[in-house]
Amino acid sequence: MKFLRNLLASILGSLVAFMIIVGMFFIFMALVGSMDDSVVVKKNSVLELSFVAPVLDYTGKDDNDPFAALWVEELGLDEILHSIAVAKNDDNIEGISLTTGFLQAGISQTREIRKALINFKSSGKFVMAHSDVYAQRDYYLASAADEVYINPVGVLDFKGLATEVLFYKGLQEKTGIKMEVIRHGKYKSAVEPFLSDTMSDENRTQIKELITSIWSVIVDDISESRNITPQNLNIIADTLGGRTPEYAVASGLLDGALHYDQYEDLLKEKIGVAEDEELNYVGLMDYMQKAKLKKINKGSDDIAVIYAQGEILIGEGGKNYIGEKLIVDALHKAIDNKNVKAIVLRVDSPGGSALVSDIIWREMQLAKKEKPLVVSFGNVAASGGYYIGVGGDMIFAEPTTITGSIGVFGTIPNVHELAESMGVNAEQVGTNKNSVDYSFFEPMTDTFRNVMQESIEETYDTFLDRVSKGRNMSVERVNEIAQGRVWSGVDAHALGLVDELGNLEDAIIAAADMAGLEEYGVKKYPRYKSGFEQFMEDYGSVKTKIGESIIQEEIGTEAYKILKEFKQFTKQEGVQAKMPFSLNIK
């Protein structure tokens, strides 16, 4: 009787859940059906750019997916750039108002948006900027505007770049949970946080040189837009000369301090709208829906752009990580598509699995035998991200790209000390001498460490060989600039690790030239799961997400960040070709 009651309750619960999902489906369809009709771009409109979500190079949205507009977890850089380019020639758009704050984009992505705004201005239209708070990256973007304003009691951050690296040696000693480390390369400092409490001189040197190089690019760009010499910009940064609106205006970083209504009056004046009339704003998300219907690149032939973004892991892959299946399938589709005449691989990755990196590298070798293959590096293309890049015919990098990091390591978690302190003893039984190779509960044996070191050295030598052949350098020369060292795009270009400094559009143009195309369209790969499929997956993992949010709320954001970073290392499989540290440049 109890069994039947439970069975009926389960069936009833499933039916109710199904009805709720079906109901939500029809509600969503109704919303989507009316969405495009509600977006109207009137005469004398201002395109308002406010980036309300993290920016990825590519979100993989299907233009025919009716749910795509309802999921705004991330913004696609490709869609943002396309919308700005369409607005440039839209007679109804008079200018752009940039009102973003706390932009969630990488420096290279920010630079691409910045270049798009400068290109937009070449049409004779205006770009204006206003914010209550300018974080350093926000100001870098806003400095491309004709005029930049701030709230009279607002805040502007302009002090130079900095980053922070966390060290876990003390945490390991206190908890008894440690990471066994095997590495090659004196600069392969990804594992340094587990071996020391302090930063090595080599690591400090490479980080300082890296962020100094990136800062120089930022300063030069701002200098050109604001007509302030790089020397004076560095003096402003050193003296915090923009720390108040008054100082920022006096130093030339800003054009004035205005309340938002006063800023709107300036916009009206530029357009020729009376003060008592309303401005016609069109938001970025709405304009994206209109802009996607307009093609800028046209032609019967296509350039395929394949996006590889995120950490490199074993598996299918998705918009947040690179797996071998999606990338390999995308390469095969691009090769088999007769309309595709050339391929561009866009890489934004700190690296990861050396095995997956090599699988993708091999497919790149096969692909470029069929069609020209150009590589474009975004925010970061380091270690495994660089590994797959050297498989192309030509490499473009942004000046601010973080790249190189030619080196490998392995980390394996060990809980021997914790288990011993808790009175847990693990005993192993095997049939052969090496059948019990490693136990999390026992110290690593010399035999196992030697085998792992041998694997690391073999992978490193393979990595050197791939770079040597791809960049037409001797192995000895590659080894000199390798050792896990990271470089900016500027330095990588000087060293011969990349061919040209340029963005994705430059790489596409180069691919078209190699294929002999004057007119062409752009076809993007891969396609990720539809909005509805993703919703169904998320629906099933709600408890997990709730649990993560509760933990973060309880222990605090910074502590949660440490926990996640430590956990990420424990989940790595196999030899890693990965960027030497988690880098958050501020």
UniProtKB/TrEMBL annotation:
Domain of life: Bacteria
Main location: membrane
InterPro entries: ClpP/crotonase-like_dom_sf (IPR029045), Pept_S49_pIV (IPR004634), Pept_S49_SppA (IPR004635), Peptidase_S49 (IPR002142), S49_SppA_67K_type_N (IPR047217), S49_SppA_C (IPR047272)
Subcellular location as annotated: Membrane
Keywords noted in UniProt: Hydrolase, Membrane, Protease, Serine protease, Transmembrane, Transmembrane helix
Pfam families per UniProt: Peptidase_S49
Keyword tRNA processing attached: no
Key word Cell division present: no
Residue stretches making up the Peptidase S49 domain: 120-270, 367-517
Residue ranges of the TM segments: 7-32
NCBIfam families on file: SppA_67K, SppA_dom
Similarity remark: Belongs to the peptidase S49 family.
Name of the protein described by the UniProt record: Signal peptide peptidase SppA
Name of the gene encoding the protein in the UniProt record: sppA
